Amino acid sequence: MVSISLEQVGVSLGRRTVVRNASATFRAGTLAGIVGPNGAGKSTLARAMLALVPHIGRILVDDAEVATMPRAELARRVAYLPQGQTLHWPLTVERLVELGRLPHLAPMSRIGDADGAAIERAIARADIAALRERVATELSGGERARVLLARALAVEAPALIADEPLASLDPGHQIDVMELLHGEARAGALVIAVLHDLTMAARYCDRLVLIDRGTIVADGTPAEVLTPANLKSVYGIDARVELAGDWPTVTALGRSR
């Protein structure tokens, strides 16, 4: 079990303030979506949770501040799937997924039986067994996205932060990935995903955090966050929000006037 807490977090990149006074607590067993328009600060906030960018305020993984945690320990606690990773080395898919076990390995040590079992579980969960002998640099965008997700899953950390995990995926594989992330949360993990597809976020996420210009403007269930008023204020659109089963669906009608 793990939790991530933000206390008045701010991030500046150069002279520009990207995240302002962000406070929230994310707990195990939850799939939380971070949503907002392009440039709102979603990915920067996700990176701050991993101490990948300097920040003010406090970010805690359980009771430990991420800024002072040893990097290997943080990597074992919180796995990370960054967006849009470019692959440069012609590794096989299996070898690439094996890299997810690095936080658990001492220098110069080899993959052990427990590591091998974790790798096999990740390959099965991401449904990439048919790709395992392929060269990763020769994969399509959608195949690459699933392989990189498998690498993150191979860490078997109690928390996972996924930045735009649906990018480059067709609708079927988008559903597969969201089902997988939802399943990880139901199994007790904390999963935080940066998402653009609001209806997909509403369907699978327990909670949404809506960011606009670096500020958290709404935090709650999808029905509480994805209101026509919030969509107009943050995205500048008129939208129809309807209930489909237990989750809202969002249809953009046009730019607000």
Descriptive labels:
257 residues, alpha/beta, Rossmann fold, six-stranded mixed beta sheet, four-stranded antiparallel beta sheet, 12 strands, 32% helix, 31% strand, globular, AAA+_ATPase, ATP binding, nucleotide-binding, ABC_transporter-like_CS
Description:
This is Iron complex transport system ATP-binding protein. Keywords: ATP-binding, Nucleotide-binding, Translocase, Transport. InterPro entries: AAA+_ATPase (IPR003593), ABC_transporter-like_ATP-bd (IPR003439), ABC_transporter-like_CS (IPR017871), P-loop_NTPase (IPR027417). GO terms for molecular function: ATP binding; ATP hydrolysis activity. It holds the Pfam family ABC_tran. This protein is α/β, with parallel strands linked by helices. The protein has a single domain, classed as Rossmann fold (3-Layer(aba) Sandwich). 32% of the residues lie in helices and 31% in strands. It has nine helices and twelve strands. The protein has helices at 42-49, 71-77, 93-98, 113-125, 141-154, 171-186, 198-204, 222-225, 228-235; strands at 3-13, 16-27, 31-35, 56-61, 64-65, 78-81, 159-163, 190-194, 207-212, 215-220, 237-244, 247-255. A six-stranded mixed beta sheet has the order 6-7-8-3-9-10, sandwiched between helices. A four-stranded antiparallel beta sheet has the order 2-1-4-5, covered by helices on one side. A two-stranded antiparallel ribbon has the order 11-12. A hairpin with a 2-residue loop joins β4 (56-61) and β5. α4 (113-125) packs antiparallel against α5 (141-154). The longest helix is centred in the last third of the chain and has 16 residues, at 171-186. The protein is globular. It starts with a strand and ends with a strand. The mean pLDDT is 93.
